[in-house]
TrEMBL record:
Its EC number is 6.3.4.2. This is Peptidase C26 protein. It comes from the Eukaryota. It comes from Dioscorea alata (Purple yam). Keywords: Ligase.
Length: 605
């Protein structure tokens, strides 16, 4: 097993997660199998109880792990399925060691940070690194490890010590350290300054780790003299200094690494000469190029609670991007704070209320993502009502589906006080209720989490067609409230179709309004399994409906599964259509100038 460690210096938020993911993409393109580990030095056991405002979204894995959003980047970039143990936290490590101490595994010993905590960290890394995550048998070739935070943070010290010991244990040729640092430009001087990176590397070396490669973040490309200065003071060859300057979209980052021959430095440091091939990134090149050249827009109103921080809805944004690029549209997201749509805001801040409604009404489609708590709920209900009554494409996710049900109960069934018991425990018409298996005393890891199977009750519905007429789908969940099964029959008589249910048939998973162009709500989170070359079916449906392509998409009976593109001198050859790895014959459709290839299983662009 080979290990690549990615650390960060100077400031947080430099993009270590994207850098680590892109390194994985380049190594995968070299023919190597990749796995990833994210180390978060906080004391929380997992990210499940953290506020999205503080830490961004909580990403959910197949096994129900609530993890850092960077694991979402790894899954999207590398098309892998990680597990909860791929996210290491201080809380997990200390809990593991304390449990062993209570069992008597350290009987007679004084349990200390060194060696017990540091040993536990190293053992965890070695254990998780050999677990396959790409659907193949046997361990991966390379494990990319990202250390969260910034070098010098007190909470990361045990991990730094453990990784220093680990690099010695695995030995030269099996460990490569990439340090991501900032090279700022002072506006007054206009000069790229190397001193922050120098100090960061000095601190790293003082802690027992020496970088093999420097990944320098900057607004513009580094001057050659700046690279030479960094090489001289940081003791890193110029050829091992990679410049990750600002780009138009993050799909360019793997291309930047390849252009600057970062793969050669990695292969040399990991002693993989003769094993790894020259990386082929044609699909990434074409995807990045398409994204940059899109001009015709599709506007989606994101009606949410955490609109002040886009990372709160990172996977939703990425899923929208994947679908919009597949449909050859430039994505425009209008952030609509849900509370600004409410009557209270109209009284207290009428201009804010007016601006929010203007944004909502200017959108081609409406998306209400998941969330918790009652703030903004009435605004979300108003957004769902607007989309339903005005035939605007709508997708509600988790809470977004629940508020659509509440709105339908109020408007169509005339149950004026219909509500969720989450927001009004005393409502006389509870249409959304607490799940019986949930806990009201403990918040962490007590929800319905992870991959669950949804069976289609009706095959002649938009959702089933978008999923390729599959009998069932496996999607990831994160909720503790559900649609009240006692009210389902009444809702169905009033025209709301519950087209997807769980294996018991009692838990509602997918709703549709058959009379509406596209009004879909799902209890699960389809955004977590969306990939750049394989967009989520329901997000693809939302974008298609928002730009007038839904009937063509449904006519092909499916969504974009996998694209293999050959780039030639004069452009791009038509992509092959794949289903389960086997090429199928396809017929060509033209939609607004974009070529679609449709077979019995899906539409491919």
């Amino acid at each position: 097993m080979k290990y690549v460690l990615v650390t960060g210096g100077v400031v947080s938020g430099l993009g270590k997660g994207v850098t680590a993911s892109s390194i994985g993409v380049v190594l995968k393109a070299c023919g190597l199998r990749i796995t990833s580990i994210k180390i978060d030095p906080y004391l929380n056991t997992d990210a499940g109880t953290m506020s999205p405002f503080e830490h961004g979204e909580v990403f959910v894995l197949d096994d129900g792990g609530e993890v850092d959003l960077d694991l979402g980047n790894y899954e999207r970039f590398l098309d892998i399925r990680l597990k909860r143990d791929n996210n290491i936290t201080t809380g997990k490590i200390y809990q593991h060691v304390i449990n062993k101490e209570r069992k008597g595994d350290y009987l007679g010993k004084t349990v200390q940070v060194v060696p017990h905590i540091t040993d536990a960290i190293q053992e965890w890394i070695e254990r998780v690194a050999i677990i396959p995550v790409d659907g193949k048998e046997g361990p991966a070739d390379v494990c990319v490890i990202e250390l969260g935070g910034t070098i010098g943070d007190i909470e990361s010290m045990p991990f730094i010590e453990a990784l220093s010991q680990f690099s010695c244990r695995v030995g030269p040729g099996n460990f490569c350290l990439i340090h991501v640092s900032l090279v700022p430009v002072l506006n007054v001087v206009g000069e790229q300054k190397t001193k922050p990176t120098q100090h960061s590397v000095r601190g790293l070396r003082g802690l027992g780790l020496t970088p093999d490669i420097l990944a320098c973040r900057s607004t513009t490309a580094l001057d050659e003299n700046v690279k030479e200065k960094l090489s001289q003071f940081c003791h890193v060859p110029v050829s091992n200094i990679v410049n990750l300057y600002d780009v138009s979209n993050i799909w360019h980052i793997p291309l930047l690494l390849k252009e600057q021959k970062a793969h050669e430095a990695l292969i040399k440091a990991l002693n993989l000469q003769g094993v790894a091939r020259e990386p082929m990134l044609l699909e990434w090149m074409e995807r990045a190029k398409i994204c940059d050249t899109l001009r015709e827009t599709v506007t989606i109103a994101m009606v949410g609670k955490y609109t002040g921080l886009s990372d709160s809805y990172l996977s939703v944004l990425k899923a929208l991007l994947h679908a919009s690029v597949a449909h050859r549209r430039k994505l425009v997201v209008e952030w609509v704070p849900a509370s600004d749509l409410e009557e209270t805001t109209l009284r207290e801040a009428p201009e804010v209320h007016k601006a929010a409604w203007k944004l909502l009404k200017s959108a081609d489609g409406v998306l209400v993502p998941g969330g918790f708590g009652d703030r903004g709920v009435e605004g979300k209900i108003l957004a769902a009502k607007y989309a339903r009554e005005n035939k605007i494409p709508f997708l509600g996710i988790c809470l977004g589906m629940q508020i659509a049900v509440i709105e339908y109960c109020r408007s169509i069934l005339k149950l004026r006080d219909a509500n969720s018991t989450e927001f009004n425990p005393n409502t006389t018409n509870p249409c959304v209720i607490f799940m019986p298996e949930g806990s009201k005393t403990h918040m962490g890891a007590t929800m319905r989490l992870g991959s669950r199977r949804t069976y289609f009750e009706v095959m002649d519905c938009k959702s089933a067609k978008l999923y390729g007429n599959a009998a069932y789908v496996d999607e990831r969940h994160r909720h503790r409230y559900e649609v009240n099964p006692e009210i389902v029959t009444e809702l169905e008589k009033a025209g709301l179709a519950f087209v997807g249910k769980d294996d018991t048939g009692k838990r509602m998973e997918i709703i549709e309004l058959p009379s509406h162009p596209y009004f879909v709500g799902v209890q699960f989170h389809p955004e977590f399994k969306s990939r750049p070359g394989k967009p989520s079916a329901l997000f693809s449906g939302l974008i298609a409906a928002s730009c007038g392509q839904l009937e063509t998409l449904l006519h092909g009976q499916g969504y974009i599964n996998r694209v293999q593109t050959k780039v030639v001198a004069n452009g791009v050859l038509p992509p092959k259509v794949y289903q389960n790895g086997n090429a199928n014959k396809a017929r060509k459709l033209m939609v607004n100038g974009a070529a679609f290839y449709a077979n019995g299983n899906g539409v491919h662009v």
